[in-house]
Amino acid sequence: MQPAAEKPTAVTAPVPPGTGIDPVCDMTPSLETPKGGSTTFEGVLVPFCNVRCKERFEADPLQYWMAVDPVCGTTVEKAHAAARAKVGRKSHFFCSRACHDRFLADPAPYLDEPADESPAVPPPGPGPAALFDIEGMTCASCAVSVEKAIAKVPGVSGVAVNIATNKATVSGTARPQAVEQAVLGAGYLAKPASSPEALPRHEEARAAFRRFLLAAALGLPVSILAMAFPDLPGGGWVQAALATLVLFGPGLGFFVVAIRKARHLSANMDTLIAVGSFAAWAFSIGMLLGPHAAHGVHLYFEVAAMIVTLILLGRWLEARAKGRAGAALHALMGLRPRTARVIRGGAEAEVALDEVRVGDRVVVRPGERIPVDGKVAEGRSQIDESMITGESLPVSRGPGDVVVGGTVNRAGALVFEATAVGEGTVLAQIVRLVGEAQGSKAPIQRLADRISGIFVPIVLAIATLTFLAWWLVTGDAAAALLPAVAVVVIACPCALGLATPTAIVVGTGRAAELGVLIKDAASLERAHAVDTVVLDKTGTVTNGAPALTDILLSPLADDELLRLVAGAERRSEHPLADAIVAAAQARSIPIPEVADFESITGGGVAARIEGRQVLVGSRKLLAASGVALPEAVEPMAASLEERGRTVVFAAVDGNFAGALGIADPVKPGSRKAIAELQALGLEVWLLTGDNARTARSIAAEVGLPPERVRAEVGPADKSTEVRRLREAGRVVAMVGDGVNDAPALAAADVGIAIGTGTDVAMETAQITLMRGDLAGVADAIRLSRRTMGTIRQNLFWAFAYNTAGIPVAAFGLLAAFGGPMLAAAAMAFSSVSVVLNSLRLRRASIS
Fold first, then answer.
1. 290 with 183: CB under 8 angstroms?
2. β-strand 750-754 against 767-769: which pairing, if any?
3. Which of 521, 590, 647, 778 is the one with CA 20 to 30 A from 44?
4. What are φ and ψ of residue 621, in 5° steps?
5. Averaged pLDDT for residues 67-96
């Protein structure tokens, strides 16, 4: 144990400026000239202090990339840790400053080994969210079994298994090998997914089609012999041979899975199919070999063969439909070109995409896809960004502008500097987010999961009771067999398991096509219930790029006032500050250095410039500081505010120094977007830190009544307003820029971040709009409503099918229509119908 007297060396910033963390030894080498070279991992440039560290990292990156916060046990990425502290030669990484400060106060309770030992690393594992391919799942009960098995693995903090994607999303620090072993123990196979692609590729559909064709080629002659030539000499043996080939050829997979499940004392859909078809086959073999074989006994080989054939037909149709459900994600993944043209050694060279490095100069000709993210250095062109943002019109890009990998260069040639490659690109983030959303589970699915978890044993029990009842009533085992087999086959819970995940896959994919990124299925479900939308003003309703328009009644020269105010605002992150600084730069006014800068949340800024105390902000800020406004200022300021201007007041050394009018124009589509939200029956509110007159003016311009406006509210007050609405029984969606509005986004039922097409890492929001306008809000809510409507339809028909199908089969009402064969066809097409119903979301208009 580390002695409590030894104080750790605290490092309260993630890394010193100009350096990065060597994740192997936790040193901080230079980013520009690392002695051991560098590599890019998870979009981060990783430097190394020596070549050995680089080699060890590249051999197993996850082992060194993650660390465990010693205070709370949270897994954090070293490069993004909130703070670090070093004890002896070992660095500790923290998820928050609170954990860091608690550690510094008394590190001894959190140290499990002497500080002078070599740096320890957490056990390798899938990290916060790892994706696994699961083989052998065929129904919802399979997903439940896999989920339960993974949840028991030490280090797993969360798991979601999706039957529509055949993937498991696992959160926590468990080793991949432990997850794989747990899944194997449940009777399935798991392996880390090589990509976030949500659905099986076309190869699966082709393989299913081949199995179906072989089963049909062998099974149809069995049916023809049984129905048209029942008394053909030797026909029974021909049927037996062909049926055996069907069951243990293309149908062998059902028996393999059923046996594997039986070894683990569990069952799934394959168990039902295997039991049903084998019962018909075994009964017929027994009759064929029995003493009454020569007297024309009835055989059921055609039942066994056609059960397998029809189920395989359903599997093929289902695989095709599931493949189409993931078309949006497939299209996104196909946007990246395989090669890029880079300038190296003064000449152009075509290289593989994974060979492009940050800082490379990349050349893109007209008509080509942009390979990676970057900043334009030379040229000007029109860029089609529709597959990223959902915006159909091309946008102009020139020197200094950002371009996004996967978009299409429509016109002129461009040369740009690569700023993000590989998994760090916007397109890679979108693919990851969409893949994670499609693999997540909606709360509405819980009921289906609970039922599916106990469904198969109940069905087998009902089938057994059905057989016994018919045998007792009729005294004929053959007559009892058909309804029992029909119960087993018709009750397979495929449709129930596919009802929710297929709709989620299609809905989130359709949203991505529209430039709307949905974080997970739960967010998609919550959005459909929203009845109130709260809008931030700056950057959401307005452009967020204001410009200085007026300088009022300054006792100083205009340039002098602007010089001092720009100096005070230079360190501020508010858009109004940017407008003031930009105006000073446009007039070539030198901006002075600042001392004692202070940002006053919701009020303004204070700074000492050249020995003078400068205060810039709202009326309230100046009044609180004892600065009185001249009488002539208020009417002029009120006039500007009524025209939608924001007025900023300034004081120097405690005396009024002037006022500045700043215009932030309303986005062209804001009024139409708000009208669409209101047409959906939503109550729309506007929140702003501006004064009431400016807020009312903006509200009137976009069609909002004054009673739905809250002015002069800071970030904390915005979250209070959101909570007030929720306490009043409203389901609230907060729409903001994802940065200053983070508290309000977090306080809402659904947080919606306005993106720019280049920043999709909006961690606080559940939904991110890739476009910079409000139209996506209505799109997201409409799509959520349609998706939830589709899920309800799917669940209703799935429940209705099983509820009606089991008694119909048990009472022998299917006998006149083929009995078990009709049951097999009905079961297969019930699954296909659920997927096809979900696919309607791909083409459904949401306008």
1. no
2. parallel
3. 521
4. -65, -45
5. 73
Handedness of CA 489, 490, 491, 493 (dihedral sign): positive
CB 216 within 8 A of CB 309: yes
The C-alpha angle with vertex 212 and arms to 209 and 218, in degrees rounded to 5, equals 145
* Phi (first) and psi of residue 522, to 5 degrees: -65, -40
The reported pLDDT for the residue numbered 113 is 41
- Predicted confidence band of residue 200 (pLDDT cuts 50, 70, 90): very low
Annotate 141-157 with b (16+ C-beta within 10 A) or e (fewer): bbbbbbbebbeebebbe
Q: What distance lies between CA 7 and its chain's CA centroid?
A: 42
Tell me what pLDDT residue 747 has. Answer: 83
Q: Which of 363-377, 736-750, 780-794 is predicted with the least confidence, judged by mean pLDDT? A: 736-750
- CA–CA dist 408, 392 (Å, integer): 12
Per-residue pLDDT at 163 exceeds 70:
yes
412 CB-near residues (< 8 Å, 6+ apart):
366, 379, 380, 381
Q: Say what the pLDDT of residue 704 is.
A: 92
Residue 119 has pLDDT above 50, yes or no: no
- pTM for this entry: 0.63
The answer for residues whose C-beta is within 8 angstroms of residue 31's C-beta and 6 or more apart is 18, 19, 20, 38, 45, 47
- Within its chain, how far is the Cα of 96 from the centroid? 24
- What mean pLDDT, rounded, does the chain reach? 79
Which of 295-309, 729-743, 817-831 shows the lowest per-residue confidence on average (mean pLDDT)? 817-831
User: In the Cβ-directed half-sphere of 716, how many Cα atoms lie within 13 Å?
Assistant: 4
- Contact yes or no for 259/313 (Cβ under 8 A): no
Q: How many CB atoms neighbour CB 285 within 10 A?
A: 17
Strand 339-344 versus strand 361-364 pairing type: antiparallel
Sheet containing 90-94: order of strands: 9-11, 83-87, 90-94
Residues 6+ apart with CB under 8 A from 373: 402, 403, 404, 405, 418, 419, 420, 421, 424, 425, 426, 758
Q: How many CA atoms lie within 13 A of 509 on its CB side?
A: 33
> Is the pLDDT higher at 507 or at 204?
507
Give the rounded percent of residues in the chain with a pLDDT score beyond 70.
Answer: 81
Render pLDDT for 474-500 as a digit per residue (tens, 0 to 9).
888 777 887 888 887 777 666 776 778
Distance CA 499, CA 798 (A): 7
The DSSP 8-state label assigned to residue 538 in this structure reads: I
Active site residues: 536
For the residues of 192-233, what is the DSSP string, one character each? E-SS---S--HHHHHHHHHHHHHHHHHHHHHHHHHHH-TT-T
Contact between 568 and 594 under an 8 Å Cβ cutoff? The reply is yes
Do residues 563 and 590 touch, judged by C-beta distance below 8 A? yes
Question: Edge to edge, what strands does the sheet with 347-352 contain?
Answer: 347-352, 339-344, 361-364, 414-420, 373-378, 402-403
Tell me the chain's radius of gyration from C-alpha atoms.
Answer: 33
CA–CA gap between residue 620 and residue 627 (Å, rounded):
10
